[in-house]
Design brief:
131 residues; alpha/beta; Rossmann fold; 4-stranded parallel sheet
Length: 131
């Protein structure tokens, strides 16, 4: 009898950068990579460090901290497929120019999940014909 080892699945962590209430919420959800960043400069340093860490797959950052980051770091974030950086609103609410989750997923994956099953502007039903 030949016994084959189960394939190993790579494990990536989720990191959070933000204020106390954001970190507390994610701590309650079971996340452990929580980073405080009282100033935009500290947030930028932590974000750059996490971007370079191959163990991090997703970085959740308070959008006010991301908006004040250096333009070079923001360009690097936009160009990177991994880790995915997701901006979430802080206690003051969302900023007007923030990206939707759908746009972030499209940028990370290269295609729009919300438009699956559409061809030439017409939706297809389950048997492949247009409805």
């Amino acid at each position: 009898m030949i016994v084959m080892a189960a394939p190993t699945i790579p494990s990536e962590s989720i990191a959070v950068i933000g204020g106390g209430s954001l970190r507390t919420g994610f701590r309650l959800a079971g996340l452990t990579h929580l980073h405080s960043a009282p100033t935009p400069a500290e947030a930028e340093a932590v974000l750059a460090q996490l971007m370079a860490d191959p163990k991090i797959g997703i970085i959740i950052v308070e959008e006010r901290l991301l908006e004040s980051a250096d333009w070079r770091l923001r360009k690097k974030i936009e160009a990177a497929a991994k880790p995915v950086v997701v901006a979430v609103p802080g206690r003051a609410g969302p900023l007007e120019q923030s990206e939707s989750i759908a746009k972030l997923v499209k940028r990370a994956l290269g295609f729009d999940l919300m438009k699956k099953g559409k061809s030439n502007g017409h939706a297809k039903n389950g048997n492949g014909t247009k409805s």
